[in-house]
Design a protein that fits this description.
mainly beta, Neuraminidase, 4-stranded antiparallel β-sheet, disordered N terminus
Length: 307
Amino acid sequence: MVRLACLIGLCLSACWCVACGPLASEDEGYGNYEFATSWVVPGFFIKQIAVGPDHRVWVADMDGQVFVYSNSGDRIEEGADFEGRDYGSVEGVAVSNDGQSFISAGSTIHHFDAQGGGVSSWSCPSNVHHLDVTADGEVLAVVNLDIVRFNLDGEILSTVTPHFYILKFMVVAGDGTFFAQDTEEGDVETLVRFGAEGQTLGSWPLDSAGGGLDLGPEGRVFVGDQNGHKRQVGIYSQEGEFLEEIAPEYAAAAYLTYITDVAVDEGTGDVYMSGLRDSNHIIVRMSSSACDPRSDTGRCCSRQFDI
């Protein structure tokens, strides 16, 4: 009977491992995050990813395409106006709190409603490399080395020219403050914080190459490490204090050899990373909750949504 009980216990443990995968721990380099899923994205090179209020993942590809996925990696095709169009090169995508989407291609920003219908397009002074949307619906864009704020009619409201050397990424907080990631001369990576009116509030150096930028719950700043050697994502306070990291071991399912962007689902806290692995373009989702088969529910934590 004792042997039978042991065998049953071993079998149950094995079943839990198959269902949930290994528990994440600091020893594994995951910190408070665990690998949830990953999937391959067709295209040439992922430039920006965004997560909408409905948890859908938007992917801007330099090959001129925009892809939309569920948070489990299922491709969503609904005949939206932006689908099937060849933009030449798409470098930016952003989704507002009410589900409107914005796509930048060359020096043009395209605006779509929450159902995917085309609303308007407007031209910018130069090529647009990164997009975000403020809480009140204004569009911030990285235009060459400037950060330009537009209203939904495409009118320029303000321009911030902070004398960046290489302006890579930008993200705006709910209160209108925003952050930008710059590579200064000598390849010094810096994160700069601005007030809602464009005034500089502070900056701090990064110890990794810039590979994406987003804000998560409680205003934490998520910075992707482009080369992925030291970590995949570093997490900071808005004052520049290093809080934790997502650093899967090499050859782990969550590991990317080159990171192009990072995005956070503000509703769940899940973190998405885009990049390369084995010449494939990959999206990785890291869950922000611990998956514990010993919990009362006996369920895994990776949350899926009917979207």
